[in-house]
## 1
Amino acid sequence: MKVNRNFDNLGESYLFAEVARRTKNYSESHPDKKIIRMGIGDVTLPLAPVVVEAIRNAADEMGVKETFKGYPEYEGYDFLREAISGYYASFGVSVDASEVFVNDGAKSDCGNIGDIFSKDCTVLVTDPVYPVYVDSNIMAGRRIVYAPSSSENGFCAMPDKSIHADIINLCSPNNPTGAAYNAEQLKAWVDYAIENDAIILYDAAYEAFIQEDLPRSIFAIEGARQCAIEFCSLSKTAGFTGLRCGYTVIPKELERDGHNIGKLWYRRQSTKFNGVSYPVQRAAQAVFSPEGQRQTRENIDYYKRNASVIAAAMDELGISYTGGKNSPYIWITCPNGMGSWEFFDYVLENANVVGTPGEGFGECGKGCMRFTSFADHEATIEAMERIKKAVRALA
Ligand code: PLP
């Protein structure tokens, strides 16, 4: 037999392993140093009380014959799909409950959606990029083209009309750069997608962090229903990284190549996916209740305060960055023209703080570093004090 040799074309899964290796080496040789981790993309605050209560109640129902639930619907229970539709309406976007597909997190659908598209499709990703979009398409053997971003375009990559793409992966607010598209920029992508008969795969995993007047959904943009699929997640919105729940929105009218895209996706899901557990869907529903929104907002605000601390430190140092305002990520240009790994080592050794080297996210990440706001607040303050001191010592 033969294996899928496309896997030979994957780069090493090197970034986080290398960060862990260097951090471990340093801490083993300096056991007295307290290392602060600002590289992690996982949340640290616990679930909101309403969410925990909903899981408990659902667990109780599962233990009683009359209310026990077996296999869930592939596309999610109506109560959750309705709640998600209501959530979209709360920021002025019309999504029908029947267009919502509940899943076990955005990563699965971002990676699996390619099942319904031809291997011959050309995939556009922005650079730097969330690696899932790249690796899942390499596994499938698709050609990838890159739309570069840099400090010159505020790390908001824009379409190049001379390049054709069939599938366009956008992520806003962006991981890793924290940059968020405005309506005009998204309209340019929608127009480009329509001209190319392409589909935009829009990852809105961080929409809940948007505080400025920016689109929270691609479907806030005219024309997007003709050319876009949206992925969202409760992981960062409501601390569901361990609980696992997200959702994908496919407009009813979205068609390509003579096929309805929502129907193709339903066919795919009903073949390879058996749905999200009842207690988790009840937990997700609780997030969208008024009390759930209030409680989860408190956690988001906590992370946003951390982001402000990081942004303020960079302002003081005169280091340019994107993100922090509408995103839990702060993406900095390393000082003194240092390379990503060079600055990583410098900060680890001189401030005992761990970031994520930008070049791990693509060519355009060279010379950049990502800090996350998911650490403890006091630790974030201390980390920034140490970084300020270490960076000033460079001068
Ligand atoms: N999309 C982006 C841009 C992410 O950064 C992440 C997680 O870090 C995901 C999707 C995956 O989220 P989930 O936990 O819902 O699978």
Note: The two ends are 59 Å apart (CA to CA).
## 2
Amino acid sequence: MATNDPTPRVTLEAITALAKRRGFIFGSSEIYGGIGGFFDYGPLGAILKRNVKAAWWREMVEVRGDVVAFDSSIVMHPSTWIASGHVAQFVDKLVDCTNCKHRFRLDHLPSLETCPDCGMRGTLTAPRNFNLMMQTSVGPLEDSAAMTYLRPETAQGIFVNFKNIYQSARKRPPFGVAQIGKSFRNEITPGNLTFRQREFEQAELEFFVPDDGNDLAWYERWVDARKRWYSDYGVSAERLRFYELKPEERPHYAKAGIDVEYLFPWGWGELESIAHRGTYDLDAHMALSGKDLTYFDEATKAKYTPILIESSAGMDRTTLTMLIDAYDEETITDASSGKETRRTVLRFHPKIAPVQVGVFPLARNKPELVARARRLEGELRSHLRSQYDEGNVGQLYRRQDEIGTPFCIMVDYQTLDDDTVTVRDRDTMRQERLSVDALRSYFAERT
Ligand code: GAP
């Protein structure tokens, strides 16, 4: 973290505790002691992640006419990973300590002299390659013919299907193919909650363009589209940066590349990579499979390999970003008593908030209020993500603030007389009285 970077919103410990307490993220198989690099999304986390994916899908596919949907299998023919370069190159260099048996990534070691864990000198082994792909066997035989991998990225499923896709969808470059799905990498040092996992979800757009000199303009357009997306969903601009890779930092075939980075509690970390990949991927699959993956343009009779622009975003990292970026703590002063209290609030964008409106009766022991509040919540449910709750009013608001609910509705005695309710805004904490009839349009404008 550089000295002029804004201070982190929250510590990793605080966000991990909140994520568990409120049902966003749990460690996988905790009752057996957990398993490093795997996580489960709780009742609210599952909705938050779905909303993040839906927001990506909406912008990248649904509102455009030039991107088609795809959903490929996780296990693919092993040759896929030879052609893609993953078998030979998707490796980290590892070093073991022969004394304490700890294992390190070479690029994380300050020197090869002394083990950073046990402090012994001369106990570190020479570096060796460790492939990050997870192996699996297919069918009842466990010989090498049946061995393959869980995909380390979703993109290859699109490349090997390029011809199937453009022919069946009747698409002509420039057009894109989008997919969201699980990927697996046997990371040596998983950590920072869901930031570095061994099983995670990617949202990838592979955009194929003709070789007509407009490829870099398309790349720029996609960088702009992705900048807009983060801004539309409220990710703070001062904690987001688009780091342009220098020529020596990108693969030789790539004309340009950008890492989208967020300022996490532990420093800047990559959320997404946007890359101009040339014709590398389709060429590699054509060379190994012997199959033609060029595009034949019926109109011009030209046959060519399209150039690829890729945007590859981690959905778990984006979800974690939304959680961290939404986090806020503030001191509030009660208007009548002057008493000061602290509140924790998640300022989620209303489109991604797991609960958009909480509905409560003023008193849980008044059956007429409870019945009216339950009925209202049931009516709102088909338009909004709503939640009924009851109890101490202060605690109800505190809980909804902490899970990031943008609006809360209170059903009180006046509701029974004139069918009005109070609506409280999470961020300003201001309350206004509205007629139940007006709620639908009120929320339609704000969510
Ligand atoms: N097809 C290109 C590709 O896979 P990448 O930069 O290796 O590019 C894209 O991965 C994104 O996937 C990353 O920016 C990150 O958000 C996510 N990602 C990669 N490894 C991850 C891991 N171990 N845990 C969580 N997310 C990961």
Note: The pocket of glycyl-adenosine-5'-phosphate is lined by residues 153, 155, 185, 187, 196-197, 200, 202, 204, 270-273, 312-314, 316-317 (CB under 6 Å).
